[in-house]
Amino acid sequence: MGRRTVDQLLADARAGLDRVPADRLRTEQDAGALVVDIRPLQQRERDGELSGALIIDRNVLEWRLDPASPHRIPETSYDRRIIVVCNEGYGSSLAAATLQQLGLHRATDLIGGYQAWLRSGGSPE
After folding, report:
1. Are 20 and 110 in contact (CB under 8 A)?
2. pLDDT at 1 over 70
C-alpha cells in the first residue's frame, strides 16, 4: 500500500457515509439515531453540550460502540443509526468509517460538526 494523504483518507471515508446535514440532526434523533459527541472536554466546556448526545471519548469509541465488545454500551447495535459529531466534521468522518468497518453499517457523521449545528440554530445546553 502506497502513501496517502489525510485528504485522500477523508475522501474515501466520506464516500461510504450517508452524512447528515446539521439542520436534520434533531429529526434523526427523533427517529431513533444515537448521536455520539466525540469532542474533547475542553471543546464541550467552551462551546456547550449537544442536547441528547451521548459523550464518548474518541480513544474508546470503537470499544463502546462495537456490539461484540465486552466494553460496549447498551444503546449500540449493528442496525442502529449512529451519528458521530466532532467539532467541525473531519475527525467524525474518519471515526464513522471505522465504525462501519466494525459492521455498524448505518454509522455516519454530522456535516460540519458541532460548529455547523450551532450555525444552523442549535442551542447548546
Report:
1. yes
2. no
Cα separation, 39 vs 1, in Å, equals 31
Q: What is the pTM (predicted TM-score) of this model?
A: 0.95
CATH architecture of 6-119: 3-Layer(aba) Sandwich (3.40)
Q: How far is it, in rounded angstroms, from Cα 99 to Cα 101?
A: 5
Helix (H, G, I), strand (E, B) or coil at 82: strand
- Return all residues near 90 (Cβ < 8 A) that are at least 6 apart: 10, 113
Task: Tell me whether strands 82-85 and 34-37 are parallel, antiparallel or unpaired.
Answer: parallel
- Residue 109 near residue 17, CB atoms below 8 Å: yes
